[in-house]
Amino acid sequence: MKKVYLDYAATTPTDPQVLAAMEPYFFEKFGNASSLHAYGQEAKKALEDSRQALADFINARPEEIVFTSGGTESDNSALLGAAYALEKKGNHIITSAIEHHAIIEPAKFLEKKGFKVTYLPVDKDGLVSPDDLKKALTDKTILVSIMHANNEIGTIQPIAQLAKIAKEKGIYFHTDTVQTVGHIPVDVEQLNVDLLSLSAHKFYGPKGVGALYVRKGTRLETFLRGGDQERGRRASTHNVSGIVGLAKAVELCRKNMEREAKFQSAMRDRLIKEIPARIPEVRLNGHPTQRLPNNVNFSIKYIEGESMLLSLDMLGIACSTGSACTSSSLEPSHVLLAIGLDHATAHGSLRITLGRWTTEADIDYLLEKLPQVAQKLRAMSPLYEKK
Ligand SMILES: *Cc1c(COP(=O)(O)O)cnc(C)c1O
Questions:
Q1: What domains can you pick out in the chain, each with its CATH number?
Q2: Which of 5, 80, 170, 181 has the fewest CB atoms within 10 Å distance of its CB?
Q3: pLDDT tens digits, 266-300
Q4: Best mutation site among 151, 246, 291, 295 for ligand 1, i.e. most ligand atoms within 8 A of its Cβ?
Q5: How far is the CA of 337 from the centre of ligand 1 (A)?
Q6: pLDDT tens, position by position, 125-139
């Protein structure tokens, strides 16, 4: 059977060149980067070269990079770390209604601990309004956290403009760039942020490794205490092979990003044009132009997202949905509700995300199969019948 992977926002394959770069660090060069002997120094050199490569890529300094276990840890560390470091200064945090769970859940936890959290709304395209941010700031605000691009609908926020508003008041600004690093340019100076999260497995690196950028002078409470790795910011023996893999993934993205984004956005725009031409009553979710080059998200009315996903899976096509009927909640994605979709429309959402190995033939195959799946499911849908 043909196999077409169109779920790159969930995770990407590890590039074989990344895997090859990592391989020596399991047996031949297995040393602990904190050891003083030659094995340790060899690992330490690989670690620091990797740190330099990542720092260069996002226009940071090596000492501002903290390696972590991935996006979730970086997001949690930024939010909880800043909250607890600054609790004497204030107890108010601002974020958006469409953040990843790795931000929403620690924010809810902080609410239980006595912090106040404002969840800024977004407009119908998924954009946060700079005016709303201005109005939400109080003299107790200590941190603003707004994601660079949304993982479901692909909308890219005007981070530099939002960060400027916070920074003018001396308030820390964090951004989750897990969906953008390696896909579009990310520059900590241009974005004007203090804290930034990224994760290797979203840009062709291995799973379980990421980083938190911490601007020099930023106060942050530490959670993993133990050894003095990462200048005391994050204890635990370094995941040297993973970090080397992250750096190799960075190197490949640096080389390929522009060309890949160009190809993917052409494929994206083809889907945005052709899906509504082939399937009646669909709605594009997310911003029409200010969106990730590899993201398409449609609500296909009268159909349930999970049945669509399973039908496509039987045809070898892997996508994602914001519907969650099999999960305990039955609630559709908070992101789709935040852009104003009703429950039925949100449940009919389909996310298609492209990447390094997506071909034109993959898109042809999807464009051939998706209308058939939609038609078949609509024929069985009581919602569609009533029309
Ligand atoms: C995937 C993702 C995360 C979580 O990253 P992990 O490395 O899987 O923990 C956080 N934020 C966004 C926007 C993501 O897409």
A1: 4-12+256-386 (3.90.1150.10), 16-252 (3.40.640.10)
A2: 170
A3: 999 999 999 999 999 999 999 999 999 999 999 99
A4: 151
A5: 20
A6: 999 999 999 999 999
